From TrEMBL:
GO molecular function list: phosphoethanolamine N-methyltransferase activity
Species the sequence originates in: Polysphondylium violaceum
Domain Methyltransferase residues, every copy: 50-205
One GO BP annotation of this record: methylation
First-level EC class: transferase
Name this protein carries in UniProt: phosphoethanolamine N-methyltransferase
Classification lineage: Eukaryota, Amoebozoa, Evosea, Eumycetozoa, Dictyostelia
Top-level division of the source organism's lineage: Eukaryota
Pathway involvement of the protein, from the record: Phospholipid metabolism; phosphatidylcholine biosynthesis; Lipid metabolism
The protein's Enzyme Commission number: 2.1.1.103
UniProt catalytic activity: N-methylethanolamine phosphate + S-adenosyl-L-methionine = N,N-dimethylethanolamine phosphate + S-adenosyl-L-homocysteine + H(+); N,N-dimethylethanolamine phosphate + S-adenosyl-L-methionine = phosphocholine + S-adenosyl-L-homocysteine + H(+)
Keywords carried by this UniProt record: Methyltransferase, Transferase
Length: 280
């Protein structure tokens, strides 16, 4: 993610995500981890090598993909995985897990994905960003930095939300019932939800042989109210709530429940995502 002093939206700040670590971790473990598995299967899962593979995870959050990549490579020799995020809270969480489990050949470091100045050119074989790069203020910098640190022939793998991703669509549609001008999620969560634009930005950064896969998973709830366990302190949810007056906020939450019931008629909320892969 990105340097907090330059943000446009709450969800583009280190504090915004750090304050949400409880709900973020729940969301990652129970939902976005599925997309991380897809990304690994489409990339590392097709690599016939077992040794000397270096992996970078940009805007890694609490490290769902980072640790999946580590486990995939654990039996090989001289493999290395690095997770980076601009939130020290996220990185502290990861480092606690690394130390507690005495893991080797894996690191977690605080870095701005738009400026990976600590990393040397032509170092990594794979560079991932699963639902992280979409929030960058200057995505082109993020793409170019990932291109720079990859070896020739290295692979980039980006996860982005489609417009029909329920979790964010709910917030967008319900907020439109309260605001004369709905909040622009196209500037953050949905910023790479157009397949042609996603391909164009990868090509502009120098990537070739681009493949864009579509995958869908469900956020499964035990009851409708459980959705707020995932929304709690989420910076996107808070940005909406802070944009309406205090008297409307209970009604806003009630309308979220009603929207889920009438739109999906299910406790399983589907979310489409693109998994884009390119070669340096």
């Amino acid at each position: 993610m990105i340097a907090s002093e330059q943000y446009s939206y709450k969800e583009q700040t280190a504090n915004g995500w750090g304050d949400a670590i409880k709900s973020y971790t729940l969301f990652a473990q129970n939902f976005t981890s599925f997309y991380s598995t897809d990304a690994i299967d489409l990339t590392l899962g097709k690599d016939s090598r077992s040794s000397n593979i270096k992996v970078l995870d940009v805007a890694c959050g609490t490290g769902q993909l980072t640790f999946k990549a580590y486990n995939k490579l654990a039996k090989g020799q001289n493999n290395y995985v690095l997770g980076t995020d601009f939130s020290n809270v996220m990185i502290d969480f990861m480092n606690h897990a690394i130390q507690e489990n005495q893991l080797k050949n894996i690191d977690a470091k605080v870095m701005d994905g738009q400026n990976l100045k600590e990393l040397v050119d032509n170092t990594f074989d794979y560079a991932y960003s699963i639902f992280g790069l979409t929030f960058f203020i200057d995505r082109s910098k993020g793409f170019k930095e990932m291109h720079r640190v990859l070896n020739t022939g290295g692979k980039i793998c980006i996860g982005t939300w489609c417009h029909d991703a329920a979790y964010f669509k709910i917030l967008k549609e319900v907020s439109a019932q309260f605001l004369a001008e709905p909040l622009p999620f196209e500037g953050s969560a949905f910023s790479l939800s157009d397949k042609d634009q996603l391909q164009s930005e990868l090509e502009a950064a120098g990537f070739k042989d681009i493949e864009i896969h579509t995958t869908v998973h469900n956020l499964s709830l035990n009851n409708y109210e459980e959705v707020f366990d995932y929304f709690e302190n989420n910076p996107i949810y808070l940005r909406v709530k802070e944009s309406i007056n205090e008297a409307q906020r209970t009604d806003f939450d009630n309308r979220i429940i009603q929207y889920i019931k009438t739109t999906y008629n299910s406790l399983h909320l589907p979310a489409g995502a693109f998994i884009a892969i390119g070669t340096k």
